[in-house]
Design a protein that fits this description.
Layout lengths: L1 H21 L4 H26 L5 H4 L1 H19 E5 L2 H9 L5 E4 L2 H6 L9 E4 H10 L5 E3 L1 H13 L3 E7 L7 E8 L5 H9 L13 E3 L9 H5 L5 E4 L2 E4 L7 H5 L5 E3 L1
Antiparallel strand pairs: 1-5, 2-3, 2-4, 3-6, 5-6, 7-10, 8-9
């Protein structure tokens, strides 16, 4: 009986700590988010870019530095700190239309960190508690926008072939606190580059709620889906498109001229 009481007390304490740190409106989490936004986000994105594809890329390619430097930082950050989930365009538009509270936009944190990407920069759409924090911390860089303007930015990025991810902050105890919509590209999105460089086990992205499905009777084997898939999840076998480890970004559906691909 005493063991059961002790276990219950331990579980209650753990739940309290998880809620204190990761609750949507937790003062602790919001304080951590302010510190992250002001002092940590851009520098760590810049250094991560340099270590994966920039002039410091030997850090991620040499096994010793990967284990001593990259992994101890990337693993806890990706698993417990901050990571993204790909969301198809149509689903994201519906999500934005249903949002409550402030929405703001500012410069993409990845692109101002490495300045190595030519895609549009004012595409960082902060939502929910993220909007209040980023407007407070960067009042000259971020501005409040309407749902209609947010949808317009997302649509313009989609037309440029970019994919979309919703990022979560403070992934402790199973919490998924959505705070920003990122319009991503393979050459500039640092979390994407980290995931592709270090692998899903070290720096995971959260797989989307949907996956691609191919109607073989309509597939013409043109390879457009293979070209646009940022995750390398599409291949052609015997003239037909085959789906591999799909993250559900939806680019293949938009690119397929025969309308053979659907996101389900």
């Amino acid at each position: 009986m005493k063991k059961m009481v002790s276990l219950a007390q331990s579980l209650s304490a753990a739940f309290f700590i998880f809620h204190l740190i990761s609750g949507e409106y937790s003062p602790v989490r919001l304080w951590l988010m302010r510190i992250f936004a002001r002092f940590i986000e851009v520098p760590i994105l810049h250094l991560s870019y340099l270590a994966c594809v920039g002039r410091l890329r030997f850090l991620s390619r040499f096994f010793l530095t990967r284990w001593l430097i990259i992994y101890p930082i990337a693993y806890p950050f990706g698993h417990y700190g901050d990571t993204g989930k790909p969301v198809p365009y149509e689903e994201l538009i519906e999500m934005v239309k249903g949002l409550e509270g402030k929405i703001a936009v500012g410069p993409c944190r990845c692109r101002i960190g490495h300045r190595a990407c030519s895609h549009p920069i004012d595409t960082d759409i902060v939502i929910k508690t993220g909007a209040s924090v980023w407007l407070e911390v960067f009042p000259e860089e971020y501005r409040e926008i309407s749902k209609e303007e947010a949808c317009r930015i997302i649509t313009e990025c989609a037309e440029l072939g970019m994919f979309h991810m919703v990022f979560m902050h403070c992934l402790i105890g199973g919490a998924l606190n959505e705070y920003v919509i990122c319009n991503c590209c393979v050459d500039g999105c640092v979390p994407f580059i980290l995931n592709r460089t270090l692998g899903q086990k070290i720096f995971p992205l959260i797989k989307g709620n949907r996956t691609a499905r191919v109607d073989e009777t309509r597939c013409e084997g043109c390879g457009k889906c293979v070209e646009v898939c940022p995750f390398g999840a599409r291949t052609l076998i015997k003239g037909k498109s085959v789906v591999g480890e799909c993250f559900g970004c939806g680019l293949c559906q938009r690119a397929c001229p025969a309308k053979a691909t659907s996101i389900v």
